[in-house]
């Protein structure tokens, strides 16, 4: 799978105290346009799984090439995250945390879920889209961060 280049997303939800929680994910894809629906896969051993199960909402933040530090930071378990990484959230429609400065934000409501092995595949109907195309996308390829050098239009 490391030979499949992917974009990098951060999935956001609210924790049990109403605080933003985030997890880096590249298991994300568009499912259909009408209604606009996306798919994420979440491991059962993550905090994100419990929060998405409970809230039935999630955000997908597509990271720009200026946000590698966030991709690395949110790929760690919450207890392993060190201080020093700066980020800010705003609450989007449906009280879904949105990482500020992401290239694209999708605010989603869970409309379907399928358990397979140690993951749940969530279908999310997109309720809100916010775009910010000031940067190129951050990508992941051969287990490394990749920064396209040419502006993608």
TrEMBL record:
Name of the protein: Flavin reductase (NADPH)
Domain Flavin reductase like positions: 1-147
UniProt keyword terms in alphabetical order: Oxidoreductase
Sections of the chain in a coiled coil: none
Protein source organism: Geodia barretti
SMART domains assigned to the protein according to its UniProt record, in alphabetical order: Flavin_Reduct
Pfam name, any one: Flavin_Reduct
The UniProt record lists the keyword Glycoprotein: no
InterPro entries: Flavin_Rdtase-like_dom, NADH-dep_flavin_reductase, Split_barrel_FMN-bd
